Fold this sequence. Notes:
Layout (H helix, E strand, L loop, with lengths): L1 H36 L5 E10 L2 E8 L2 E8 L2 E8 L1 H30 L4
Antiparallel strand pairs: 1-2, 2-3, 3-4
Helix pairs in contact: 1-2
Amino acid sequence: MAVDWFNYFVVLVVVGLMLLxxxxxxxxxxxxxxxxxxxxRLVTVVESTPVAQNTAVHVAKVGSRYxxxxxxxxHLTALGEIPAEEVEQWLIEQRALFAxxxxxxxxLLAALRxxxx
Length: 117
């Protein structure tokens, strides 16, 4: 009887670790996609932060300008403009951080495939 509970616990831990791994991978991929596509489109949402339920503040790149936009409950409001230097410096830092975080994962995949990195 004790063995059955131990097996259930092991299976539960394995499933939990798999879900955690998928969550980390999805977050990483979505972040990388956002950072890589910022310069290729005319209008791009660079960053979003929820402020309250159904309300968020967004930084959007429109052409070469960065706008701060408030949105919620079916409407958007332009709050102001952010200097491009500030946002682009932040993007450079985020890209560097993303590259640093994905390096070990990329090296692991290369090792599994048998290709030296």
